[in-house]
Every structure is written in structure tokens, then in C-alpha cells.
Design a protein that fits this description.
Number of strands: 7
Largest sheet: 5 strands, mixed
CATH topology of the largest domain: 60s Ribosomal Protein L30, Chain: A
Number of domains: 2
Strand order of the largest sheet: 3-4-7-5-6
Strand content: 15-25%
CATH superfamily of the largest domain: OmpA-like domain
Radius of gyration: 19 Å
CATH class of the largest domain: Alpha Beta
Distance between the termini: 23 Å
Structural class: alpha+beta
Shape: globular
Number of helices: 8
Order of helices and strands: HEEHHHEEHHEHEHE
Helix content: 40-55%
CATH architecture of the largest domain: 2-Layer Sandwich
Length: about 220
């Protein structure tokens, strides 16, 4: 919980600071107005106060989003909202190697490891930056969703190593989104190591399928 709140404070402070800046017409310098300072303090305090309460991670996230002023969807509007987001993601990701699937109102992006990361590394491939940037643009537009970033590996190597690698890869993708303007309170990362294969680890083709990062977009709905 401490790491979640620390990350939230840093990203929200930087985001709110930039939003509160104005250019002095005489000197050309960037300054923070009194209104901007108030908005900055309100955003950070509200989100952190929300994150500090709640009995579990999802509940703390929901409270942090409410504290940051992110509204919730309700009724028939939920499906329509996710339909529009799915349509835009499919258009952006066509030919990228990233698959888009729908499960109820959830949207799942499957990012194969061979196009996302170098072998045995959590460093995102430079040629994949544009793909992630395209996703970031869409999820910033549709801000009433949370992003669950899950890392997965094949069975080659020790359980401990694979668990650590999956966590670091999920964190790399999550950090990419927050560094490109996605609110930190919306992003959660988790590593599953080799525990959730989608294919057999007995073949190279199967292992390639298991090396992946899955991004699940879920609507923020009213309780």
C-alpha cells in the first residue's frame, strides 16, 4: 500500500503542476497561479486520502479515483462506452501484433513477449514504443476505465526468476503509461510468472504464446 500511495503522489503532483502552470506574458516564464496551486493540492490530497482508505487494493483504487475526481459509469452507458473504446483500440492496433478481445465489458489486449521485450529483459523494445503510445492516447481519452497490467512467462528457468521477470515486465508497461499521462491511480500491475499458461510449454510455439503481457481495461462503475 505504501508503494501505491508514493507512486500516486509523485505522478499526480507532476501532472497537476503542469496543468496549473501559466506563461507570464511579460517575461515568458512559466509560473504556477494561485488557482493552479489550489487545483494541484486538491487533486493530490483527494487522491491520496482516497487511496489511504479501503480494505483491499481494488477498493483503495476506487477511492483514489474518486478522490482524484474520476467519475463512474452507470447503466446502459457502460457497454456503449467500452464499445467506443474497443473500436478505437482496434483501429490503432491493427497490424501491430497486439490482439484485442472482449469479455463482457472488459477489453483485453494481449501483447506477445517477442514483440514487447528483449529476451530475458524487462526493457521495452524501442520499436514497440509507438504501439504503447497509441494505447496510451486511447486510454487517456477514455479515462473512466482502470488498467490491470499482468506479466506472464513460459516455464523455462526457475519459478522465482520467472515470477520476478513477469513482475518487472508488467511494471515497465505500467510505468510507460503513467509517464505518458495516464493517471497512476488507474494503473495496477501484477506478475503471474509461469502460473497461467495459455498454451503448452512443451513446444517453442507454446512457450512463445505464454510469454506475454495482458492489459485488461475495466470500466469504473457505480456501486
Amino acid at each position: 500500500m505504501h508503494n501505491f500511495i508514493s507512486k500516486l503522489v509523485l505522478v499526480l503532483t507532476l501532472t497537476a503542476f503542469m496543468a496549473g502552470c501559466a506563461t507570464d506574458p511579460y517575461t515568458g516564464e512559466k509560473k504556477v497561479s494561485k488557482t493552479g496551486k489550489g487545483a494541484m493540492i486538491g487533486t493530490v490530497v483527494g487522491a491520496v486520502a482516497g487511496a489511504a482508505t479501503g480494505s483491499n487494493t481494488k477498493e483503495r483504487q476506487r477511492r483514489a479515483l474518486a478522490g482524484a475526481g474520476i467519475g463512474a459509469l452507470s447503466g446502459a452507458g457502460v457497454g456503449y462506452y467500452m464499445d467506443r473504446q474497443e473500436e478505437k483500440l482496434r483501429a490503432k492496433l491493427q497490424g501491430s501484433g497486439v490482439s484485442v478481445t472482449r469479455s463482457g465489458n472488459d477489453i483485453i489486449l494481449n501483447m506477445p513477449g517477442n514483440i514487447t521485450f528483449k529476451t530475458d529483459s524487462a526493457d521495452i523494445r524501442a520499436d514497440f514504443f509507438d504501439v504503447l503510445s497509441s494505447v496510451a492516447l486511447v486510454v487517456k481519452e477514455f479515462d473512466k476505465t482502470t488498467l490491470n497490467v499482468a506479466g506472464h512467462t513460459d516455464s523455462v528457468g526457475s519459478d522465482q526468476y520467472n515470477q520476478s521477470l513477469s513482475e518487472r515486465r508488467a511494471a515497465s508497461v505500467g510505468n510507460y503509461f503513467t509517464s505518458h499521462g495516464v493517471l497512476a491511480a488507474r494503473v495496477m500491475t501484477v506478475g503471474y510468472g509461469e502460473s497461467q499458461p495459455v498454451a503448452s510449454n512443451s513446444t517453442e510455439a507454446g512457450r512463445a504464446q505464454n510469454r506475454r503481457v495482458e492489459l485488461t481495461l475495466q470500466p469504473i462503475v457505480q456501486n
